[in-house]
Amino acid sequence: MELTEIDNDDIEAFLLESNESLSEIERDIIELEKASVNREALDRIYRSLHTLKGNCGFLPFPKLESLAHAGESLISCLRDVSKQSLVNGDRNFTVTPQIISTLLQTVDSIRQLLSQIKTTKHEGSDDYSTLIHALAKLEQTQEVVSVLPSSLAPQPAELTEATITSSESAYIRVNVSLLDQMMNLVGELVLSRNQVMGFSQKHQDSSFKATCQHLNLITVQLQEAVMKTRLQPISTIWQKFPRVIRDLAIAHGKQVAVEMQGAETEVDKSIIEAIKDPLTHLVRNCIDHGIELPTERSAVGKLTTGKIFLQAFYENSKVNIEIGDDGRGLIPAQLKMRAQQLGLVSSVQAETMSDAEAINLIFLPGFSTSQQVTNLSGRGMGMDIVKSNIDKINGSIEIDSQPGTGTIFKLKIPLTLTIIPALIVNSNGDRYAIPQASLQELVRLEPEQAHKQIEIFYDVPVYPLRGNLIPLVYLSQVLHPSNSFPTPHSQLILVVIQADNYQFGLVVDAVEDIEDIVVKPLGQQLKALSLFTGATIMGDGRVALILDAVNLAKQAGIHEKQQLLASISSANIPTEVAERQLILLFQGTQGALMGIPVAIAFRLEEIKRTAIEKVGNQDVVRSSGRILPLIDLKNIFPGDTQPSQQTETLQLVIVSPNTELSVGLVVERILDIVEEPLTIQGIPSRPGVLFCAVIQGQITEILDVEAVIEIANPYLLQVSDRG
């Protein structure tokens, strides 16, 4: 059959299936190197190579067929030897490193052939006879073992049967471009939903409002469903690491084992693409700088085989990824010395630097601990690029290192980059969006408060927030340097932001709302503007730019300002001020008026009562791609009155007492958001109440959210503290 007669779709399907099989074959070959051979892995390799060989004969690709046949023959021989050893009572049959290396070389060659076929539709002119001969020679060395009994010999039907199970038929392959198109359409639907919801608030029509609520419910469900189709397990990246680790360990004379947990954790495809290179670099860094040589490890009482571990898990609507080793760890004094040698810090800076700051020196551009260039490091680029790539996706990276014990890189990344919750702010008449992942809290200062509390140190405006000095950045000044600072006669709104391990207050003109936005990439002409990560279209059709908190902090010089503030004692700065805060008011049991600071109330939602599920003794609901614990305040503050009639919908206040925990409080009715000073007027009235205050002439119970959670389910706080 001529190759030109074969449909391009057939070749595409062959390449896709072959590459998937090849990744599985490579993982199983690495599995064979363990102390006791995994016989199921041998069977899987054999079946995959047999299928690949059969497909090659159909297309035809003779070189690829010959190479697959040689590998299949060697694996078949190993299966025979393995089964014979099992019959003889030997359960510890092992495969030599030479066989493993040759099989991995075979995988590389097959991958090279597949790449050639994808590019040119032909196998190319490369000669693989030497490799085929090596495979045949290894097969001959294994054939000294007695022939298997016929009852143990594999039957042809076992190899060629291709029955499709019901679970396999439940899956289909979908082109990624189609998924991207669906996600774009859902994004447009979200924008239209936002516009329609805006109209419904202006028109008091009950039928129109009910239709809008139904549209909102369907849009949320569709958005979650489409996002799930784009999710990929993080194992798509991790599956390559055992091979990479093995090859690098051999090249550097080290012995390394790898452990993985949470490989099934799913992340959006766009995130997978963004973190692939950073994670690979961190793994290579652990081998080059972390794991010691066997003689070094033995000398300090460690096992000669070092360990690299990878862990992934969900936490608070984010994916946590930890990559670590049990190697030599980072020594702050050595890092300071190396940074001075490279001219990155002065001796004065090094002396006043904490251990945590010293460890973060490895993120500086040009920093490297290698004295010479190797194939792994030493070119003055690496960890700074890793951090930059993580920052681009609104993620964060931290280092936990103990000298002599090991190092752990802790990454926190969002589930998706396409649709995110963001705070909409106003500055100079323009609207901007700040991703909620960067937000800490909101503070509003009246003119007299601003005049009294904001002080200037070394030309840096600062504000005392609960005893800590935070530098202020005026957004209007950053975007329009010619603008003057606001006069003390106007109120100030501070958006407290955490970025690049620093906290600062962003001064804006007004705060509008928190809502889900659709991230649109910037055009080619605007990509050089590092202050913005993209744009979004608001409900009224206007465009709002999305601020990049990290680059905003860099441009405003937050790092330098924090160093200046570090030497300033805040003892003489007034901190006990009755700040006006935004308070969310709602009706509790028995008609009681209750309140929560808006700073910890991140979202208001309305859910159907039927959406509540039970996990153990805890009520939960699925919301925005996460499982949210629910606490009904009726159970915390029981009343003596007759129970009210159950409604079909429930009103939720989603609160986050800390960065690791979010819960949904079920309230009777959300009333209003007011701005009041939280002046204590009375002692707590009952458990779960922080204090009582007079708000708008009425006694209001201000809830102690942590105490409420402690009463309802103390395990939730224990888990968040552990994180």
From TrEMBL:
E.C. number: 2.7.13.3
EC primary class: transferase
Residue numbers carrying Phosphohistidine: H50
GO CC terms in record: cytoplasm
Gene Ontology MF terms: phosphorelay sensor kinase activity
Domain CheW-like: 419-558, 579-714
Residue ranges of domain HPt in the record: 3-117
Protein name, UniProt field: histidine kinase
Organism: Anabaenopsis circularis NIES-21
Organism lineage string: Bacteria, Bacillati, Cyanobacteriota, Cyanophyceae, Nostocales
